[in-house]
Amino acid sequence: MTTAATRGDRRISPVFLGIAAVTAVAGWAVWTGTGGATGFAVFLFVTGAWIVSLCLHEYAHARTALHSGDLSVGAKGYLTLNPLKYTHALLSIVLPVLFVVMGGIGLPGGAVYIERARIHGRWKHSLISAAGPLTNVAFAIVCTAPFWLDALDGVPLAFQYALAFLAMLQVTAAILNSLPIPGLDGYGVIEPWLSYKIRRQVEPIAPFGLIAVFAILWIPGVNIVFFDGIDALLGLLGVDDLQRYCGYDLYRFWRAFFDEQNPVCAVG
C-alpha cells in the first residue's frame, strides 16, 4: 500500500538545482555581456529557463494529483523536480527543446503518470490537467512583467530579447497545451466529462497528439496565422514582435557561423 510522500520524496533534486544554477549564470552572462559570446549565453539562458518551466509544469500536475488523492507521485520522484524521474524523458524534455530549436515553439510533452483510479471527482481530474498550462501562464506573466510594467530602463538589449523570446515560449506552451486535442492537457481537462465510449475511441490516438500539433504548425498558412495571433497577444503584454524575433535570432547562435549577423538585432 502506497503511503504519503516522505520528506525525501519532496526534496528538490540536485539535477534541477544544477539546471537552475546554469540558467542563473547564463542569465548573468547575457546581462553583463561577459565572455563576448552573447548568442551562446542566450541559448543557455533560454534553454535552461525553458527546462526549469517544464519541470515546474510537471510538478504542478503531480502536486495537484497528490492533494487530490494520488499519494504515489512522491515515491515516483515527481515532487523532486528532477526531469530524469519523468515517465517519458524523450517527450518531456528532448522533444520540447527540439521544438524550440526547430521552430521557436514552446510545447510541453507528457511526463508524469497519474494513477487516476485513486482520484475521485471529475473536477479534481480536470484541475490536475489544468495545473500544467496554468503554470506556463504564471511563468509568462513573470517574463512579460518588465514589459507591461514599463520597467526596461537599464536592462541590456540582449537580456530584453532573451526574455521576450522566453515569454513567447511560455505563451505558446499555455495556448497549445490547452487545446482540446488528445495527448494534451486541454483534452485532459474535458476528458472526465466525456462518455466512456468516446474516451475509449480516442485513447489509441492520444500518444500522437503532440506530434500532430507540431506537424500542423509547419503548414505555412497555419504557421502565419498562429504566430500573428501570438504577436498580437504578446503586444498586449508589452512585447513587440521585433523583440521576440531578435530573441529567437540570438538564441540560434550557430547561425552566426553561416550567415552575416542581422544588424537589426545587434546588441553591441
Q: Can you characterise this structure?
A:
This protein is mainly alpha-helical and 268 residues long. The chain contains 12 helices and no strands. The chain has helices spanning 7-10, 14-32, 38-68, 72-75, 89-103, 122-148, 157-177, 185-190, 196-202, 209-217, 220-236, 241-251. The longest helix has 31 residues, at 38-68. The radius of gyration is 19 Å and the shape is globular. 44% of the residues are buried. The mean pLDDT is 87.
Chain-wise SSE layout:
Layout: H1 7-10, H2 14-32, H3 38-68, H4 72-75, H5 89-103, H6 122-148, H7 157-177, H8 185-190, H9 196-202, H10 209-217, H11 220-236, H12 241-251
How would you describe this structure in keywords?
Rip2-like; 12 helices; single chain; 268 residues; mainly alpha; zinc; membrane; peptidase activity; protease
Low-pLDDT segments: none
Mean pLDDT: 87
Largest beta-sheet details: none
Shape: globular
Instruction: Give the SSE order as H and E letters.
Output: HHHHHHHHHHHH
Portion in beta strands: under 5%
Organism: Streptomyces stephensoniae
GO biological process, one term: proteolysis
Cofactor: Zn(2+)
GO molecular function: peptidase activity
Structure at a glance:
This protein is mainly alpha-helical.
